[in-house]
Amino acid sequence: MFSNMFTFRGRGSPVAEFIVGVLAAAVLLVVWELAARLGVIKPQFLPSPTAVVAALWRMLTTQSLLWHTAVSAGRVWSAFLIAAIMAVPIGILMSSYRVVGAALEPIVDFIRYLPVPALVPLSIIWFGVGETTKIFLLWLGTFFQLVLFVADDMRRVPNEYVEAARTVGANSRQVMVDVALRAMAPSLVDNLRITLGWCWTYLIIAEIVAADSGIGYVIWSARRFVKTPEVMAGVVVIGLIGLLTDQILRYVHRRLFRYL
Q: Which CATH architecture has domain 64-256?
């Protein structure tokens, strides 16, 4: 069951991969717990896993952590969906029509290198301190990366597919919808999964802007009082949500594209 996993580009069964993943996580947690209990790392800097779990339970039962998590998830998904709805058609047009790519690529390349934290003051000036600013910052960290991914996905569609479609009389719309979009769909779904993870990484930045709810707000508030277990618990929640979402999207990808 495990032998193929030790060969170059070998594949293991889903069960074997799951077991290896669980064992690796268990080893990491044991080393972390021992390092904290033996005083190798001071608990003010890195509390033990048991302390983090205790803080997480306390936050779930007395500090409305589930509600804060739901608020954050709503912000992330709102920003991500807006980014995806905009990025997919723009990216396709950028790689399909050279005039669109020549006009937009320099702008997209310039903006995607701007650090999102540096744009927080401008965002507050433009949109105030409400929900719009938080969603804008999350969108900003996602859209410009995603649009280039989509453009690259479209460019990777083999010209042979397009030429074959033209040969049988397909027009531009049919080539794009029936050929190019179908060919790029597997990599497009994968890139949507990756950029959704990036969107979560900008959550803390978005929720320190005059926020009174969300996981970022919880983490930032705990940081002020040096409650390191609570900070770590908030980080763990984000990581668990990301892991769960990623695994669900991987499963959807496998179901949609079984031929890969």
A: Orthogonal Bundle (1.10)
